[in-house]
Structures are given as C-alpha cells and as structure tokens.
Amino acid sequence: METTTTKQDYKEIIDSQKQSFKKRAVQSDEQGAFVTDNYHDLKELRLFSALIPEELGGLGMAYPEMCRLLKTIAQYCGSTALAFSMHQHLVATAVWKYKHKNVGETTLRKIAEKQLVLVSTGARDWLGSNGEMTRTEGGYFLSAKKHFASQSIAGDIAITSAPFLNEKNEWKVLHFPVPLNTEGVSILDDWNVMGMRGTGSHGIAFENVFVPENAIALERSRDEFHPVWNVVLTVAMPLIMSVYVGIAERAMEIAIVKGKNYGRNQEHMRYCIGKLNNKLVAARTQWKAMYALANNFDFSIDKDNTVLMLSLKTNVAEACKQTVSDAMESIGGQSFYKKNELERLFRDVQAASFHPLPKWNQYAFTGERLLSE
After folding, report:
1. Radius of gyration from C-alpha coordinates of the chain
2. Which domain CATH number covers 151?
3. How far apart are CA 111 and CA 59, in angstroms?
4. What is the span of the domain harbouring residue 215?
5. Is 59 helix (H, G, I), strand (E, B) or coil?
6. Calpha distance 23→35 (Å, rounded)
7. 171: three-class secondary structure by DSSP
8. For 73-129, what is each residue's pLDDT tens digit?
9. Is the same domain home to 48 and 64?
C-alpha cells in the first residue's frame, strides 16, 4: 500500500477503502471485535500522525481536514472513526502545546516515527479523576481501573490521571502517560455493549504501576476546573462529534435511497425527508461552528470558548441522534431489521450522549458559569 499520504488526497484514499471498511464494520459489530484491519490500513497510510507538523515527521494536516476525514470514515465504519478520533484528540492537544508552549517535540516525533496509538482515560475521570497514587522512591505507585478507554486493546500509551493526597493533606490530580506494556497494566475483557462495538473500548487496570516523577505532566487541584480543560475540550469535541455527524449523514443517505421506493409512506415521505434534512442541517452547522472555534490550533485559553463548545457538543449530539431516529421513522419497520444498516447506525449514534459532558452535566456546568458572571 502506498504510504505517501498527503493532507490534500485523504478523501480519495479513504473513499478507496470504503468497501473494505463497510464490510469489516458489519463483522466487527456482529462479533464485538476491534477493527484491527482498519487500524492497520490507517497506520499504513501514516494517518496516526496526520495532525503532527511536517517538520516533526507528520503530514501537517489542517485541523478542519481531520474533522472532515473522521466524518468520512464514520460513513463507512463508525467504530473505526470513533476509536481513531480518541487518538487524534490527544495528538491535537499535544500539537497545540507544541505550537503555543514549545513543548512535546520529542513525543510528537516518536508518534510520527512509530505510528503510536494514544489512549485516553479521561472520559470517566473529569475533574475528580479516580484511582489511588502513593509515594515511592523516584515516583509513585498507581492503582486504578479506567473504563471506556477506546482502542485500549490496540493502544501503545495511556494518557491518564489519578488523585493524590500530598504532604500538605491537599488532594491533587496528577496527569501522566503510561506505556501499556508496563508491568502491572492489563486490559480488561469488559467491552460488551449496545453500539460502537468495534471500538475496543475495554477498561484498563493499573495494579501498583510505577510512574516516575519525571513523567508527571500536570498537577492540579482535585474537583476544580483547570485551564488545561479549555485546551482539551476545544480540540477534542469537534473531532469526536465529527464521527456522529458522519453517521447522521449516512442515515439520511439511506433514508433518501430507500424512501424513493417505499410505497407505504409515500404520502408523507416529502415531509419526513424535509424534517430529517432540517435536523441534519442543525447538526452540520453547529459542528462547523465547533471546529471554527478550534481555529486550526490558533486559539488562546478561554473559558467562554469552553462554555460555548460544550453547549454546541450537546446540541450536535442531540441533532445527530434525532437525525438517525427520523431516518428510521421515514422508512418504517424495515429499519428495525439488523440487515438494515440503519439499525447499527441507530445503536452507534447513542454513544454521542456519553462523551464529556453528558447533557445534564453540561447544562449544570454552563448554567453555573453563566450565573456566576
């Protein structure tokens, strides 16, 4: 396979993979198995370093292009796109730090050279994190279980955190990477779910894992919002929501194709498709507003952007879910059969609700900040 992918030709290359991706999407969903072969293809194309600047060995792909790439992949295999987005949002955070803080060059070069897969454990951690860290000579011992760790089954490095009670009796949260081949790290066999079954989002168990002092990238107060989240959320949410917009677009495509020949609903079909399109327009428009906020990494830490980003994330998630639901409604009971792709899309799109922040948490977070101004 050709490995000279550039940021200009990704669409053509991914489109050339669509038949194999679609076939594997069915297989991975039926078996609950990770999309290993799709990941192999993405590595061959060096897309795990697509966002990394060219001077560091990456492809230098623009941020909006990565959003569109994820959307395209999702139209063929939602699980592949979602797992891949989890790696990309960690890379995007590192690229922002490199561009604005001039740190992380070595890590980015290593990712590009070896096509390393980064695994986030942050979805369930949020402000408080979980687990236990204890002091030892030269560092800490970590014990924790981290769930919803997408692509952990194929990962190389976990980007994680854990609470620590320091010498002043103050609760802190420490952030650090842990290579997944470290002694004491194991991948749990616990990913048996309704949708996104091919993402390999198994939990990770850390049992007395040594974390050296020099691996600590950030120390922050526990249960308090830290400016780092302004960066992470700004680059992460547009990438992740790109996946669900892609799923919604595919659902509408199916509804239109099948709706043209669906005799039972012809009297109402134009209304169904018109309503469906309105919801998809809402999803697309607000998704574009999300990646516009990221501004191709040219943004400053801004709490107002974070509030807006999280509100847009909720709106996009709800619009995508409604789009797929409306697509099923438009073509009736045939969409209920597992042989219809819409059935899988419906299950996959439900995962949109569970990325940070879930809807009710986002409402409370946003409302608290607006009321405090």
Report:
1. 21
2. 2.40.110.10
3. 12
4. 132-221
5. coil
6. 11
7. strand
8. 999 999 999 999 999 999 999 999 999 999 999 999 999 999 999 999 977 788 999
9. yes
One domain for residues 365 and 232: yes
Residue 11: what pLDDT? Answer: 75
pLDDT of residue 2: 42
Tokens of 97: 């730090």
Which of 317, 345, 342, 316 shows the shortest CA–CA distance to 328? 342
CA–CA distances in Å: residue 254 to residues 197, 335, 340: 21, 10, 9
Tokens of residue 17, six digits: 């993979």
Backbone angles phi, psi at 181, to 5 degrees: -95, 10
Structure tokens at 29: 């969903």
For residue 208, what is the enclosing H or E element? strand 204-212
SS (H, E, C) 252-288: HHHHHHHHCCCHHHHHHHHHHHHHHHHHHHHHHHHHH
Say whether pTM exceeds 0.85.
Answer: yes
- Identify whether residues 198 and 236 lie together within a single domain: no
The answer to whether position 3 is within a domain reads no
245 and 357 share one domain: yes
Compute the distance between CA of residue 284 and CA of residue 242 in angstroms, rounded to an integer.
9
Same domain, 42 and 87: yes
Which 8-state DSSP code applies to residue 323?
H
Q: Based on the structure, what is the number of domains in the chain?
A: 3
Answer whether the bond into residue 310 is a cis peptide, omega within 30°. no
Q: Which contiguous run of DSSP H or E holds residue 338?
A: none
Do 99 and 174 fall into the same domain? no
Given the DSSP bridges, would you call strands 118-120 and 157-165 parallel, antiparallel or unpaired?
parallel
Name the residue among 281, 308, 282, 279 with its Cα closest to residue 295.
308
Rounded Cα distance between 43 and 50, Å, is 10
